[in-house]
Design goal:
Strand order of the largest sheet: 1-2-3-4-5-7-6
Number of domains: 1
Shape: globular
Low-confidence stretches: none
Number of strands: 7
Radius of gyration: 14 Å
Mean pLDDT: 91
Order of helices and strands: EHHEEEHEHEE
CATH topology: Aminopeptidase
Helix content: 25-40%
Largest sheet: 7 strands, mixed
């Protein structure tokens, strides 16, 4: 059974999952990791989700304000041993619902070209590729997406 908890970045399970995410990204991003890492601090994330599978924390995600009408999806991660169970999709859907509840109209996000499963998830859930925004403009390894919320 999958249970989703709306929380914030002070949640210990969220912190532990992000620690694991950062370890995985350090490997997959290689030399680019330090560049990306500077944009992924968690100390000011007020809207995070932790997913529990059989009462164990297994996945997470977050939103943070991007502009007056948009939030940015951040820190999406699922432990390798529970991937393929639809947990990331459930988290993404819950983050979008939360953003809508908060009055936002759009979600934006960035992921790396070295993250094909993430790219597949976002395309499958209705996100469309956009020009790279902000700090990711001109960054070859970045892929940016957006999705209008209902």
């Amino acid at each position: 059974m999958i249970k989703l908890l709306r929380t914030n970045s002070k949640n210990n399970d969220f912190i532990e999952l992000v620690t694991q995410l950062d370890k995985d990204l350090a490997i997959s991003d290689g030399d680019d990791h330090d560049f990306y890492h500077q944009f992924n601090g968690i100390d000011t994330l007020n809207h995070t989700i932790v997913a529990y599978y059989n009462d164990a924390p297994v996945a997470c995600g977050a939103i943070k304000q991007f502009d007056d009408a948009s939030v940015e999806i951040k820190r999406m991660y699922t432990l390798p041993n529970v991937r393929g169970k639809g947990i990331a999709t459930k988290i993404l859907n819950e983050l979008e619902l939360w953003a809508t509840d908060l009055g936002y109209k759009k979600c934006v996000l960035e992921t790396g070209k070295k993250q094909p499963k993430a790219i597949s998830l976002y395309k499958k859930t209705g996100y469309v590729v956009t020009p790279n925004y902000g700090q990711y403009a001109g960054i070859e390894n970045s892929v940016c997406f957006e999705k209008l919320l209902h």
